[in-house]
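Hi all, posting the design record for the shared folder.

TITLE: backbone redesign
STEP: 1 of 1
STRUCTURE INPUT:
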């Protein structure tokens, strides 16, 4: 090869490498600037604001949350006497906490800074609003970034909290407590830059997401004032408004007003949010943080630094200033801070802007006062709500814009009325929020309206949700659905039902059912309302809320996952049309039934589905069709519940049902199982007529002596219960036994059958049946099968031998003893797969402490019966993949009420003033089993 050719090859390789490098650089640049999606928000702010919808209602009507000082914190009257105000914005329920909900003991809860308490509850709320089950995050790479300031929360020696003081009051534990309680393993950081803390936390969270340090992030801030220290110190500096109101940018501004609050944002990279199917409320386009440095005072704001942080945020967002419509200002209402901030905004956003499209300016502090470490996140939540409603709420208490600012130097307008969002047809709505810390740390973030395609489904398989539990659900035909509710206590469960009532009519019932099942945690106290329509759901929920037991209610208290046995029904339960409603409703059932019918049709004279769904059961009742039909329906039912994640500990079956159990256990593949089932039915049908079967309410011990007198022609065919026996054999001999039973006070009942199954009259078919079985390939079972022949777990040798299945035809079905064996081996729940609840009734009669559920119940609509069974499994603690219950692309997640926290009372006292405990000082918590989230 010549040098020229080598040079050409080298240049080709270099060109390819260069293209790859450029692509990699482009990917890195895009990742570094990818918008961060806000997928959930939770908050508590003054004015009894318990969520974003409450905050918006306050903003829209121009309300505020300023009140007198709380009276339940034990604050020193002497210290309060030096405060220049006796008003502020308070979380008046900050002294309460549902400790048991988070698995926290009363002593530890009392030791905890109330900021930890309100943050825990609000974070749970934010995750539920995001459609994320908080308990499902355990072990996930979820980051926690919380802005918080030390508040000197203390308790006295009499409170008996030794061992908890350190974790109860250390600032780092504020974020660490969230990670611990929810089991999160991503980065956890408590940020203290004073009043800019929560916005700095948002900035750090966005960086961590883009850097891949976490794949979900919780960002926000919290302030609860455990003492009046902040009021006292700022009073000495003359920095407080006498009435506690922040008059942001107003001529009458006379100082700030202090407040409490907590806000939490749930964040993901935009691409992840789309892939996970989460609703995108808005996106964080860019952010920046800087410092005043050596300015004109440690606590004084610095205009040039504020200008720089705005410019850095715009650069990070790759936007120009005129592409931002609104700024949510820090706006503390001080004569020093507001003018500096306004001048910085005029210098950045106000220049080169059309006079008819000024930058709109507002501050949520005029409504709730200055919530300190929770202030920045309050502004973000306000902006997200304003963009979604297309309106910027007015800033309160503005008599006139402050004269300390030259408002004519730029296009900037203070929003003193509710103002429609400026219309920009060619781009999304955008806004910015500023926060400036007492220590000189400044933060600025740019928030953008959710992308127009945020709710669109992924375009290809690579974009599909990775977790099947999070997959889009449900194109559901009209019919019954289970509405699942759960709580830590019975009282909370009733309140959950009451909370759901106002929203149950707001959309499709299937959407509500899907959202309840897939986005909410499942606690010990569980209930499910199975409803066909909104009216039925409303009546049942109202009854549940009132402590009653409505029709269609399934309820229970779980104590861990019970051992589950799946049992398959025997012949006699067949009915015309069985499975047809499920076929139309559940694609998994339809596919499995089609496959089973195709395998069986090879051995039948007529298509099996045609026989099953005929107008009458005349042909279906013939054994040659009844047994294959039962097998097909039961296998399809198993494949359906299997797709929901149901994994039984044991399998058992009554007569032909045991062949269904063997197939799903893997003993026989479908082709072999179909051959054996069809041969069984065909050979039985071909036997001479004349055999009969009779059932009697008597024990085996009472019946056995009578049967032994006719051992050549009669036998006990089944022992279904302690006092439920079936006798089968020649008609005249059975008639004699019936007469003897009547003499002894029993009332035998003839069964409508064509032959005397499990009797000596089966003998002529046994050799032919054995020959069919010997030609089949049997395999070791993958699941334990309990034999109704031996009433014990079947061995591999038994299940894989032709002799066992031949004996199975002739010998009695010892179902009662089989259930007894299962109970002795820890089985607490039974699920019957078949067209009716025959075996369920048998289990309940003799084992009332066992929980037995039937997937179908004869004449009851199949969707309602199956929904009740699924709900019953859930109530018992059997885990289900509920997303798979709602197949197809139609159903969607909808907003639901969040958890009904049951808060007990706790009083936070002034630091350093221990005193004897008072009954009202004891933290009231609900005792019982703890929920371990961490």
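Okay, here is what came back for every position:
SEQUENCE:
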């Amino acid at each position: 090869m010549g040098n020229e050719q080598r040079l050409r090859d080298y240049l080709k390789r270099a060109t390819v490498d260069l293209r790859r490098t450029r692509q990699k650089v482009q990917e890195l640049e895009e990742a570094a600037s990818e918008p961060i999606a806000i997928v959930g928000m939770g908050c508590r702010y003054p004015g009894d604001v318990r969520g974003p919808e409450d905050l918006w209602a306050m903003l829209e009507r121009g309300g505020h949350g300023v009140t007198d000082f709380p009276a339940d914190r034990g604050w020193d009257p002497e210290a309060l006497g030096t405060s220049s105000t006796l008003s502020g914005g308070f979380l008046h329920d900050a002294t309460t906490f549902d400790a048991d909900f988070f698995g926290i003991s009363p002593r530890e809860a009392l030791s905890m800074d109330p900021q930890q308490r309100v943050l825990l509850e609000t974070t749970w709320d934010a995750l539920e609003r995001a459609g994320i089950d908080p308990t499902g995050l355990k072990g996930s790479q979820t980051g926690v970034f919380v802005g918080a300031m030390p508040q000197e929360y203390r308790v006295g020696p009499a409170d008996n909290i030794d061992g908890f003081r350190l974790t109860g009051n250390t600032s780092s534990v504020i974020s660490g407590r969230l990670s611990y309680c929810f089991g999160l393993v991503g980065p956890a950081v408590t940020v203290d830059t004073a009043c800019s803390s929560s916005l700095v936390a948002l900035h750090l969270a966005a960086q961590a997401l883009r850097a891949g340090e976490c794949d979900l992030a919780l960002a926000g801030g919290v302030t609860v004032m455990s003492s009046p220290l902040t009021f006292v110190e700022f009073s000495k500096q003359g920095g407080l408004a006498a009435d506690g109101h922040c008059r942001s940018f107003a001529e009458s501004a006379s100082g700030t007003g202090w407040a409490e609050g907590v806000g939490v944002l749930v964040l993901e990279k935009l691409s992840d949010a789309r892939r996970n199917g989460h609703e995108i409320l808005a996106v964080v386009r860019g952010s920046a943080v800087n410092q005043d440095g050596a300015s004109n005072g440690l606590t004084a704001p610095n205009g040039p630094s504020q200008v720089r942080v705005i410019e850095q945020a715009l650069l990070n967002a790759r936007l120009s200033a005129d592409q931002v419509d609104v700024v949510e200002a820090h706006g503390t209402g001080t004569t020093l801070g507001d003018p500096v901030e306004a001048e910085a905004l005029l210098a950045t956003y106000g220049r080169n802007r059309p006079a008819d499209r000024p930058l709109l300016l507002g501050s949520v502090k005029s409504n709730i006062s200055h919530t300190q470490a929770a202030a920045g996140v309050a502004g973000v939540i306000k902006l997200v709500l304003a963009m979604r409603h297309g309106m910027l709420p007015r800033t309160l208490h503005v008599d006139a814009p402050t004269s300390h600012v030259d408002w004519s130097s730029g296009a900037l307008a203070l929003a003193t009325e509710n103002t429609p969002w400026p219309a920009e047809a060619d781009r999304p709505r955008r806004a910015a929020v500023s926060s400036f810390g007492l220590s000189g740390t400044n933060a600025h973030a740019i928030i953008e309206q959710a992308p127009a395609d945020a709710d669109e489904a992924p375009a290809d398989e690579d974009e599909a949700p990775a977790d099947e539990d999070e997959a889009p659900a449900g194109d559901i035909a009209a019919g019954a659905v289970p509405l699942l509710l759960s709580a830590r206590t019975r009282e909370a469960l009733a309140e959950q039902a009451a909370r759901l009532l106002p929203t149950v009519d707001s959309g499709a019932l299937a959407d509500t059912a899907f959202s309840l099942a897939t986005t909410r945690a499942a606690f010990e106290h569980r209930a499910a309302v199975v409803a066909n329509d909104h009216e039925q759901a409303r009546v049942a929920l109202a009854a549940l809320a009132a402590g009653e037991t409505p029709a269609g209610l399934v309820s229970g208290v779980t104590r861990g996952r019970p051992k589950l046995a799946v049992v398959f029904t025997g012949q006699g339960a067949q009915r015309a049309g069985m499975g047809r409603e499920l076929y139309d409703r559940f694609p998994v059932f339809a596919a499995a039934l089609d496959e089973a019918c195709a395998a069986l049709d090879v051995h039948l004279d007529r298509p099996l589905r045609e026989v099953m769904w005929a107008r009458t059961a005349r042909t279906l009742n013939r054994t040659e069709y009844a047994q294959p039909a039962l097998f097909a329906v039961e296998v399809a039912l198993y494949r359906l519940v299997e797709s929901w994640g149901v994994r039984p500990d044991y399998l058992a079956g009554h007569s032909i049902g045991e062949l269904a159990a063997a197939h799903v256990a893997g003993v026989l593949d479908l082709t072999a199982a179909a051959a054996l089932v069809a041969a069984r039915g065909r050979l039985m049908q071909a036997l001479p007529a004349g055999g009969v079967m009779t059932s009697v309410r008597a024990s085996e011990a009472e019946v056995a002596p009578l049967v032994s007198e006719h051992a050549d022609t009669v036998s006990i065919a089944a022992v279904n219960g302690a006092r439920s026996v079936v006798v089968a054999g020649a008609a005249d001999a059975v008639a004699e036994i019936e007469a003897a039973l009547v003499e002894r006070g029993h009332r035998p009942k003839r069964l409508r059958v064509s032959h005397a199954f499990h009797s000596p009259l089966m003998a002529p078919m046994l050799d032919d049946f054995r020959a069919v079985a010997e030609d089949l390939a049997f395999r070791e079972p993958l699941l334990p099968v309990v034999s109704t022949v031996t009433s014990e777990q079947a061995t591999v040798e038994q299940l894989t031998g032709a002799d066992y299945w031949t004996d199975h035809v002739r010998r009695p079905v010892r179902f009662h003893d089989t259930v007894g064996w299962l109970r002795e081996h820890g089985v607490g729940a039974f699920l019957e797969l078949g067209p009716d609840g025959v075996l369920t009734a048998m289990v309940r009669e003799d084992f009332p402490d066992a929980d037995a559920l039937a997937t179908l119940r004869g004449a009851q609509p199949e969707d309602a019966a199956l929904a009740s069974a699924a709900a019953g499994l859930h109530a018992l603690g059997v885990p289900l993949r509920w997303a798979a219950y709602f197949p197809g692309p139609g159903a969607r997640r909808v907003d639901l009420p969040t958890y009904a926290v049951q808060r007990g009372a706790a009083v936070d006292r002034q630091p350093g003033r221990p005193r004897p405990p008072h009954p009202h000082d004891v933290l009231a918590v609900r005792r019982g089993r703890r929920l371990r989230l961490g």
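COMMENT: The longest strand covers residues 282-291.
Let me know if anyone wants the other runs.
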